[in-house]
Amino acid sequence: MSPEPVAGATVPGPDPIGSPSGPLLDIDDLAVEYRSRARGAVRAVAGVSLSVGAGEIVGLVGESGCGKSSLARAAVGLTAPHAGTVRFAGRPVTPVQWAKRPAAEVGLQMVFQNPYASLNPRRRIGDQIADGLPAGLSGERRRQRISELLDRVGMGADTAAKYPHQFSGGQRQRLAIARALAGEPSMIIADEPVTALDASSQAQVVNLLVRLVRELGMGMLFISHDLALVRQIADRTAVMYLGKVVEVAPTERLWSAPNHPYTRALIDAVPTISARPELPAVLAGEVPDPANAPSGCRFRPRCPAAFESCGHEPPLVPIGDRASVACWLSTNGETG
Amino acid sequence: MTATTIEPAAGEQPAARRPRVPTLVRFLAKRIAITIGLLWGVTVVTFALVHVVPGDAATANLSEQALNDPAVVAAYRAKWGLDQPIWLQYLHYLQNLLHGDLGTSQQTGRPVLTDLVQYVPATLELAVPSMILALVIGTAVGMLAAVRHGRASDQVVRVGSLLGLSTPPFWLSLVVLYLFFYLLGVSPSGGRLSPQFAPPPSVTGMYTVDAALAGQWAAAWDAVQHLVLPVLVLTCLTVATLIRFVRSAMLEVLQQDYIRAAYAKGLPTRTVLGRHLLRAGLVPVITVSGLAFASLLSGTVLVENIFGWPGLGQYAFRSATGLDLPSILGVSLFVALVYTVVNLLVDLLYGLIDPRIRLS
Amino acid sequence: SAGGDAGSAGGSTLTIDTSFVVKSLDPGHVYEATGNTAVHAMYDTLLTFHGSDMTKPQPDLATSYQASADAKTFTFHLRKDATFGNGDKLTADDVVFSLNRLRNLKASPSVTVANLTATKTDAYTVVVHAAKADPNVPVILTQPYTGIVNAKLVKEKGGTDGADAAKTDSAQKYLDGTSAGSGPYLLDSFDASSQLVLKANPKYWGAKPKFSRVVLRNMDVQNQKLTMSRTKGAELALDLSGTMLEGLPKTLQQSSADDTFYFLTLNADPKISKTTSNPAFVQAVRAAIDYTGVAKLFGGNASPAAGVVPPAFPGALPASEAQHQDLAKAKQLLADAGLHDPSVKLMYPSITYRGVDLGTIATKVQGDVKKAGIKLVLDPQPLTSFLNAQQSGKVAMRFSPQSLNYPVAASLVNNLAPGQGTAATTGWTVARADKAVVAAGKKVQQTLDPAAQQRALQDWQRLLNQHSPYIPMAYNSGVVVASPALSGAVYAPAGWQVDIAAVGTK
Amino acid sequence: MTEQSERTVTEPTGTEAPPAVDLTDRRVRRPLARRSWLRRLRGNGPSRPLWRQPLTVVSLAILVGWLLVAALAPLIAPYDPLAQHPATYLPPSGAHPFGTDELGRDILSRVVYGARLSIPLALIIVALALAVGGVLGLIAGYLGRFVDEALMRLTDLVFAFPQIILAMAVSAAFGPSTRNAVLALVIVSWPVYARVIRSAVLTVRGEDYLHAARLLGVGPVRALRRDVLPNSVGPAVVLATLELGNAVLMLAALSFLGLGPRPPAAEWGAMIALGSHDLSKWWVSVFPGLAILTVVLAFNILGDALRDRIDPRYAKGR
Amino acid sequence: MSALLSLDRLGVTLPGDVPVIHDATLHVDAGEIVGIAGESGSGKSLTAAALLNLLPAGSRVSGSARFAGEDLLGLDKAGWQRVRGAGISMVFQDPTAALHPMLPIGRQLTEHMRRHLGLSKSDARARAVELLDQVRIPDPERTLRSYPHQFSGGMRQRVAIAIALACRPKLLIADEPTTALDVTVQAGILALLSQLRDEIGLSVLFITHDLGVLSALTSRTYVFYAGRVMETGPTGALLSAPHHPYTAALLGARPHGAAGVGALRPIPGSPVVPGQAPPGCPFQPRCTFATADCATAPPEPAPVGAGRLSACPVAPELEVLA
Ligand SMILES: Nc1ncnc2c1ncn2[C@@H]1O[C@H](COP(=O)(O)OP(=O)(O)OP(=O)(O)O)[C@@H](O)[C@H]1O
Ligand SMILES: Nc1ncnc2c1ncn2[C@@H]1O[C@H](COP(=O)(O)OP(=O)(O)OP(=O)(O)O)[C@@H](O)[C@H]1O
Ligand SMILES: [Mg+2]
Ligand SMILES: [Mg+2]
């Protein structure tokens, strides 16, 4: 495999905090494995390389169970990776265990999928946000900072004294974002932050996130299974299948000219609104159990274009500007 | 279990299960190891407990005048190995235990195993019918209450089961004795059999069964009559817990979509409740019935004492107050064994009823 | 239902209800009440008592005996027609084996015979030697544990009368399942927890007992009362006493004898307690107790105590001398001794004895002495812990029932006199004791003439009431309650409660 | 009793964690999360306020009544509960509504004073057991690994003894007294709390809010105090309420066997034991029995109501 | 041609006097796939539940509901047992929850067939195999012996559809049958339903909140809000030119097409809580076009074009809403 770290941002932002040369978040050949008595070893992430630059939004899409969350949690340091490295601003991310998280890593934050579970139901909003503020802050400064953060996510300052159950899902997700901002992050990993929300709240939260990233010049890895949503906000999009990234490309290019048959199938499966009813295209089969991944190209059993080369695993190779694909069809010369 | 697809067009099929035997064997091996560890823990705790007590078995088992004679005391202590250091006594006990020898009871002078063989059936004769009754009634009534959730009958059941939970077992025993024996005279007093009957030849150790096997119908009927009150009390105690549990388990199941789906298919209520609800509600019931059985055994201590029932509960009580170490250890080991075996059965049954569960 | 009509079953089953713990039916080991009752029916002894008359041992296996003047040698002449249950003849060998085995087993009952050695002169003559003079040897030889076993059979089953019998004898297991005696009954079945069944010995040498089958069943007191209230058959209850007798149908027969006393023991060792070792305190407690009230708690035939010898035995003080409460005297005694608000822990076994919860009595005592300004803190202990603490001699004040080791009042002296068994655990040494008490005790033991001994006993008791750490409070009786049709159901204060073989129908 | 009864259902069977349901197939998770939360918002239990449920109100009244009785015992009791009187075993009458016992003591007064023992002792037992079990459960759940394993085996060990027999043995071993009875009951009842708290902690350990706090640089100890503890004690507190009734029962059982508070204390179980010697004096046992029954019933109903409210999961019953 | 299902001013009040559905008028013709759309909590599922008498105990239903000439609201217990499964059947949102986890699929697939169709055990089994074939499940024989957990979500939903189709119902109610599934799997289910309509003339009442799905599958759509029908009409026309501000708002909030910050337009405010609906139009507090009139009385749906009704009196005057 020859992952090529692709750096750069479509929208210019402030320089990355760490090493100015490399990307802000650099995931290199990451693997995550679960061992369960029932299924044996499950390789949920099987060697993924991906990087996100400052001010850049990278979307990560894929079917359920393909390892998106596992990747996110390992990237942020919630689980120890089985192999590979994650670098944030140039320094390796240490998994959060017994020790307190090093201050330098607090700039890497995460927004979780379920807004109902990601806020402590028994603590006031203000206290939870204050977790991320420097310990030396005086009471007054602290209050001020909390209302600033709440204001940023469009919630009133009086929110600080309330408890999470007093808010709707969309509001909670905004509060969770405010809490993440308390760590003054330069990079946010958002794992399906709007999946649990109503269409209308979805729009609110997504708008907020995108605005913040642009305003604060942060980087964001935005994970979702909703292609249309990712298309709307991401600068680049990575497509994951069964623990591997099969294609990365600038979003519009990915939509207009997908290089991987799987990407194509995913896009075709999205129902669209049109005057005449038009059924989305069907991709046969479903994601295999990662505990039992097919040999060679993992997509081979479902691929309409599979041929004999597919018995070998295709590497992720760059094809043009900031785009890579892992498919023998593309690597054998042709692009697109 | 997630299925695997190889055929592009074929969708998927249930993946072949990996061979199950090794899983089961591993599971059993682990459980047996845990059980052994548990039993060992029981011996340690009991031994320690008995030895922190001021006074030893000699005081409990020799007459007062004999205690004044050092020679007699020394002879006794030597006979039971009480003159050895405690760790040696313990090692000795373990060694015998490995050979299946539980030692000799100081209060009955018989091998503890013999005592257990005698007392356990008497207790089972109480516990098993109580458990079965409690299970049947508990499941039926609990299910009824769940189905009629919120209505008057549900409230009645709820209050009734709370009452059952709140009644002191020894008091209930006295009350039923007072009512049915003293006032009404419809039931026999205590014991397992009226004196005019000789205990039937021992096959199972349970008088009802043995008498029936021997064709002694009058004795069998008499034994059944003696069972009624204590079984009633034990059932009352257990059924309350079960009803509560079944009720809430069934309530939870009733909210599941698959019950709505079953109705939506046009199945009659009888089928939905009897097949779909019962099947799913039974899983938690099995869990709790394992615990309920353990508590039932525990409940027999008081009940047996009041009804003069010569079972394990009385034996345990006398062993504890007489500081009869081998007997206490024997009873504790037995109960711990029952506890683990029941739990094991519960887990196995679980796997049998619920296909989603694998032994791991 | 309960009681049943034994008459219809051939008229031959006698039911005896008792709450029992029977550890052994081997005469060499037996010592609990129920065991004694059963062993008495299965094993003949050299001598015996009939009914409730404890004045003089009567012939049993021995047709006659002679005691030497120094009370050290006793010669017994055996009857020649006695046979064991299996048909073997009973000879002097069996007697010698049985008595020596009993002594050498060093089990609970061995203590009483530790002083004795049996030898035979011929096949039907046995001589028992006492190492220390003891005029009560004939009485001891009425006790069930001196029952004569079939020596040949018991030896076959591992029995021995050797000096090392305590270690090597292994016949107990056999004897717990099979009787090897010459008594009117044989053991049919024994279930340590529920019942013990006797059947008539077809080869019994004496008069055939009336009942061919006897069931002793384990039953708590409550149920005994209820069962007896309804019984229609031949049935006895052994544990009904005191208050439990109230409300029983008038048709039932009762037979009783006051053979137990309940007493407080106050430690005389100042190291254990400054308070209890103060004689004035003891006397104050003695004066503060409401003896009639305590006796009433036992109900039935119980009576306030006069001394330590229960009325069932010759040598008891007359009822007219019963102690009585005198609070003014108690307060005076305390004041004179300069004891203000004394407080003592009273330890007692938390058991129910003869239908009375000892805690109730202790509470009553606590209430009584409080009126005199004495504070008692109750300290109930499980029986084992109580016995252990008592044995240690470190208990300041304790309360327990006491009965005689064997049915001679003088045996109490062996136990209660300064420096002896009970006294030793009470810190009452000869040095601490009043000279007169010591002398009076000696006199009891040395007097061989029964009438004179009884007078000496009474004098000794009067002195105990003034100078001892014992406060006897009440006498209580053992009672046999029998269904109306029975005859011969007499309470025997002799250790075996009732002579089963003597029970018949009217 | 009971209850070993008393074991909880959060951990179905003693010796081992229940065989895992293979729910790793999480394809259908997304909408589920939304649904279940909606459901919780809508509520599925009796969501009426406590004071609108007649049963709960009645039980609360009973309990408050008993607490008043305990507090005001000297004012309420017509006689000194320890005062002996020569007229014994008087059946219920105007002068002695509940009759008198074998020492002529007024049973009503003793029942009244009994509340001063049973209710506070039950509270102490449960509080101690909750404290001991809570701390151990918290440690086991948070530290995991062999600490957890060892603690769980220890709870198994306690569970493997029938509660009453173990309590009897402990109480007999150290001699009957109030302190030892409390000790014995704490020893047999702490594992339930340890298990409940442990499993609650295990749940919280997987919660995103804990992760979020750790990601913000909160140290493990602070997280334990702020995030784990407050979210784990809920079930245990609910359980404790339910266990109060059980503690009253167990204490009475020990007393009944002569292993509880020493005489002449007016303890209900011991009073029943006195009456049990003679069924014909039914009033001696019946009234203290009814006292136990009402107190325990009130505790149980309240615990039940509290459980339904606080934690719908616990509506499972035990 | 008379409609297969027709609801006229159906109202549902939940226990505790919580009105949740108001005056829902709706019809489904034979062989037609009709959609119901709306935000979460708008009463879509309750409408479906009312059609099968699966409402929470103590709910009250008003108005009329006729199915194949029969008055549903007048049915007795036996009548409902007859209609359920054989007349109207249902597919639930979450196939994992809707299949009994402890009964083999064969059992769940045949038990109601034997009852409704009076089939013998073997006949029912034969039909079950046929059905599984129809919903494109490979190896039906083996599937019959398997349990739900042995299948993926998509397969489970196919099984659930097979169960719903077993007694040849005339109407299938599908309550968000694809919400729990991945887009790729969803496409398969949509294709299946569409094929079934073509092959066996199945009528479907399809509930979803995904407008894209509606567009792909249904011929007509009802848009629900706060238990009321806001707008109805042929799906294509309705979605391309909405005549109700709510429909327009729904369309605006969903991602559509090319990138750009602010391309998503959230609906301001939050949905109505049942029982606390404002007077007048329930959408009025969130509506950008609301006038004072909107707060007086709930507007009646009025015709706004070919086969279209809108409950917004202002709508016809607005040019383009989307
Ligand atoms: N803690 C765990 N233990 C065992 N297996 C796990 C664990 N977490 C995830 N897996 C497995 O790893 C694989 C990837 O899971 P992951 O949650 O990363 O997927 P995902 O892409 O985030 O899916 P979704 O879209 O459903 O969130 C799945 O097969 C899942 O079953
Ligand atoms: N059992 C119930 N008890 C009380 N209220 C209920 C109940 N079921 C539903 N509701 C309420 O009725 C309203 C309509 O619910 P319904 O389930 O029909 O919505 P829906 O449109 O299907 O939403 P979703 O998209 O979330 O499935 C909701 O506000 C809900 O809170
Ligand atoms: Mg995920
Ligand atoms: Mg719905």
Structure description:
The complex is a heteropentamer of chains A (336), B (360), C (506), D (318) and E (322). Chain B has 360 residues and is mostly helical. Chain B is 73% helix and 0% strand. The radius of gyration of chain B is 26 Å and the shape is globular. In chain C, the strands form six sheets. In chain C, strands 1, 8, 9, 10, 11, 12, 13, 14, 17, 18 and 19 form an eleven-stranded mixed beta sheet that branches. In chain E, the strands form two sheets. An eight-stranded mixed beta sheet of chain E has the order 6-7-8-3-9-10-12-11, sandwiched between helices. In chain E, strands 2-1-4-5 form a four-stranded antiparallel beta sheet, covered by helices on one side. In chain E, helix 5 packs across helix 7. Chain E is built from eleven helices and twelve strands. Chain E has helices at 44-51, 77-86, 95-98, 105-116, 121-134, 140-145, 153-165, 183-200, 211-217, 235-240, 245-253; strands spanning 5-14, 18-28, 33-37, 60-67, 70-71, 88-91, 171-175, 203-207, 220-225, 228-234, 302-305, 308-310. The model of chain E has no long low-confidence stretch (mean pLDDT 87). Chain E is globular, with a radius of gyration of 20 Å. In chain E, strand 1 (5-14) and strand 2 form a beta hairpin. Chain E has two domains: 5-87 and 173-182 and 199-317, P-loop containing nucleotide triphosphate hydrolases (Rossmann fold, 3-Layer(aba) Sandwich); 96-166, no CATH class. Chains in contact: A-B, A-D, A-E, B-C, B-D, B-E, C-D, D-E. The complex binds adenosine-5'-triphosphate (2 copies) and magnesium ion (MG) (2 copies). One magnesium ion binds next to helix 1 of chain A. One adenosine-5'-triphosphate (ATP) sits between chains A (34, 36, 42, 44, 62, 64-70, 225, 290) and D (24, 26, 29).
**Reported CATH architecture of the domain at 15-53 and 62-94 and 240-336 in chain A:** 3-Layer(aba) Sandwich
What sort of overall outline of chain D do the alpha carbons produce when their principal axes are compared? elongated
Structural class of chain A: alpha/beta
What is the terminal separation of chain A in angstroms? 20 Å
CATH class membership of the domain at 15-53 and 62-94 and 240-336 in chain A: Alpha Beta
